[in-house]
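User: For my dataset I need records formatted as: sequence, then structure tokens, nothing else. Please produce one.
Assistant:
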Amino acid sequence: MSEEIKHYTAHWHTSPFPMMVGFGTGLFLPWAFMLQFNYEQPTAALVCLVIGAALGIAGGLGWAGETIGVIDDEGWSPSAMFMFIGTEIMTIGAILAGYWVMRLGAPVWPPADTPTIDASIPLIATIILVVSSITIGLARKREMEGDSSGFVKMVLLSIVIWGVFMVMVISDWNHLASEGFTIGVNAYATALYGLTGIHMAHIVIGLLVMLTCLPSALKGRMSFSYTRAMTMYVHFVNSLGLWVLLQVYYW
């Protein structure tokens, strides 16, 4: 009886892109904030911000490009995304813990010099944002059915939804700033802009993740593992948006 034997050779997969993302988002971006707000060095902060953003975006796009268009069953993308989301939950959880300590330790919250904050715009924006969990789920369903055109349409609709959310949040920021409520006014202002800013950074990354998969999908090449990881990220960011809304505007 003959039997086909497959030989697998173990090897390391080397890539510079994870290191670029790590240095960009884990080193230069935190230093940009520290130089700006702790050491009052705006020029050095701007340099670190540009370097960090460039490394993060270029590394992220390169990293994604290694999996997009690769036809596979599952691959490592979902496992990697699961671990990434786990680290994000721990990091953001630590930030929220700091916010809770400050919030619960304050004699009055928000501080007395805080203007009345209208939560209706953030609420509507977050409701719109959560709809993208449905559209991105439909995108994955279309992909599994082999419908690349339907997949592209649903991803584009998800991108539009996130774009509308961004416009609404930035508009709300501008409105608050026009009333003199900027990030340095008091502790609540710092928390509001900080937490919503962290969420907005995840939105920008998610938009890049969704946009990057479209060229290959338009050619009929879709990666099931990449799409699953992308769907996981969208659901995570939407859940984060709900948390930020509840913590900042309704507590």
